[in-house]
Automatic annotation (TrEMBL):
SMART domains: Elp3. Residues 118-367 form the Radical SAM core domain. Keywords: 4Fe-4S, Cytoplasm, Disulfide bond, Iron, Iron-sulfur, Metal-binding, Methyltransferase, rRNA processing, S-adenosyl-L-methionine, Transferase, tRNA processing. This is Probable dual-specificity RNA methyltransferase RlmN. Belongs to the radical SAM superfamily. RlmN family. Transmembrane segments: none annotated. Its EC number is 2.1.1.192. Its cofactor is [4Fe-4S] cluster. Specifically methylates position 2 of adenine 2503 in 23S rRNA and position 2 of adenine 37 in tRNAs. PANTHER family: 23S RRNA METHYLTRANSFERASE (PTHR30544), RADICAL SAM CORE DOMAIN-CONTAINING PROTEIN (PTHR30544:SF5). Reaction proceeds by a ping-pong mechanism involving intermediate methylation of a conserved cysteine residue. It comes from Nocardioides aestuarii.
Amino acid sequence: MSDSPRTLPLVMSEPRGRKKPPRHLADLTEAERSEALVEAGLPAYRAKQLSNHYFTRLVDDPAEMTDLPAAQREELVSTLLPELMTPLRTMEADKGTTRKTLWKLFDGALVESVLMRYPNRTTMCVSSQAGCGMACPFCATGQGGLQRNMSTAEIVEQVVAGARSLARGEVPGGTGRVSNVVFMGMGEPLANYKAVIGAVRRLTDPNPGGLGMSARGVTVSTVGLVPRIRQLTDEGIPVTLALSLHAPDDELRNELVPINTRWSVAETVEAAWDYAARTKRRVSIEYAMMRGINDQAWRADLLADVLNSYGDWGWVHVNLIPLNPTKGGPVFQGKIFTRSEDGDMDEFVRRLEAKGVPTTVRDTRGNDIDAACGQLAALE
């Protein structure tokens, strides 16, 4: 594709004069952490000890950092481990194995994260922006607009907080660890590209520099910022790409995902296919099932045809998501946004699989605690 104005990267600008989040070691590389301590007149080698407390021991109480000298402990912690966010409310579902937390950031912005524990894994769903500027009408976050980008450390802290809860046995099922992270909370991850990639690197850097997770356990979602998808392709980090498509035709997707007026279905799917071809990582197509809006059988056939036009070598998997409706949301073409009927979802699956497209229906959790991203913040 040519570098026409339509394909220039989307830049989410921050309001002028806004204060930045406090600098935290998760914002920095290991070398930068040492440099920050030296600039503060502190020993560089303490950076590794602080990183070990944060990423490996999951400690948040300075009193437990007994290998740091008492006389310097407070200064060391304030320099590289400032408080980033405060939990306002935690709600539980599924007998405590689903925990949604509403966080207040340093400037009063509200974001959400969700911990979901399954028998064989624990997934953290994290936010990357306070609010979202993509304006998808069925999404609670999109209805509220964008407040600001989150910092790398603010993103990472959501995962570390979940890891602490597991390590302390606060989640039913005994002690455990976070095995998967999905960037599917509030915000458009690729519109906050630099901070999100920084967070992915902190999550996957080996201990004590980072959490030591496998990149294959990290999923980065996007509504289709094509230049950023191509940039991610060049990063060489084998994360899973999840494309929130929600419609196979431009006419409907222009309404459901307004960024489609800038990059069409064909351009977006092509960029996702290129990602799969380069990384050898299967792309997940996210498709929220909305009753009477995008769940017609013919749209399942069209979706299969669009995806199969790039070959049937298993490059893609469709993840159907029963819509978690938002309270007081807008009406679309006379219809309220609500989840599809089970029979219509079953037929959608059958049509896709008949054309050789692997498809699953997401195991939804937390409907009773407003678990769709942005719902809890909207209530607050």
